[in-house]
Design goal:
Mean pLDDT: 97
Strand content: 25-35%
CATH architecture: 3-Layer(aba) Sandwich
Oligomer: single chain
Shape: globular
Number of strands: 11
CATH superfamily: Class I glutamine amidotransferase (GATase) domain
Distance between the termini: 11 Å
Number of domains: 1
Order of helices and strands: EHEHEHEHHEEEEEEEH
Helix content: 10-25%
Strand order of the largest sheet: 2-1-3-4-11-10-9-6-7
Radius of gyration: 16 Å
Length: about 220
Amino acid sequence: MTKKALFLAGGWEGHEPQETSKFISNEIEKYDIESEIINDLDILGEKNKLEKYDIILPVWTMGIVDDGNWDLKNSKIGNLQEVIYSGVGLAGWHGGMGDAFRDNTNYQFLVGSQFVCHPGDFVDYSVIIKDSKHKITRGLENFKVHSEQYFLHYDPSVEIVASTKFDNKHHEWIDGVEMPIAYTKKWGNGRIFYCSIGHYLKDFENLNVVKLISQGINWAVR
């Protein structure tokens, strides 16, 4: 049965939200997932429409949602939480999911992390596969990337499937700190997947990154 994915592609253009969404939407076709890519957050206010998708992918770095409304009732993030709770999946990468709506802690509670820094900007670093038996990491071994190495504030309840370690080149006090690269979590009946790699389309020239993200989306889909 064909699954339906909704990409919310917008926000800061430096992360190439439209281009990366199109690329990943093409990749997940092999899992029989068909995608709709929209540049509009209004759909988050229509829960009946959100419920028709099997997975939602925020690709919306920064941006503002709910205009400071912290009450989850009748709010866009409240609707998103409810549909994920019902079983719709949630997945994404880099700042598109991990730095979206940075002033909304209800959103951060849902996704399980928030970007805070990338020391040294673009650097070479290693990705360590923590759970090689997971469906998300199937066929992957430790690999290297050249991109932003995200330092996150993250929910300690997430299940980390891939990680990275920081060195002391830029900040001596984070030497040896291990940080999630990819993790899963549950929200009611919904599965959530996040990967911190994927700054722009060039990051997807690394086939290991593409495999990790596409398998993560396929795992999270309802």
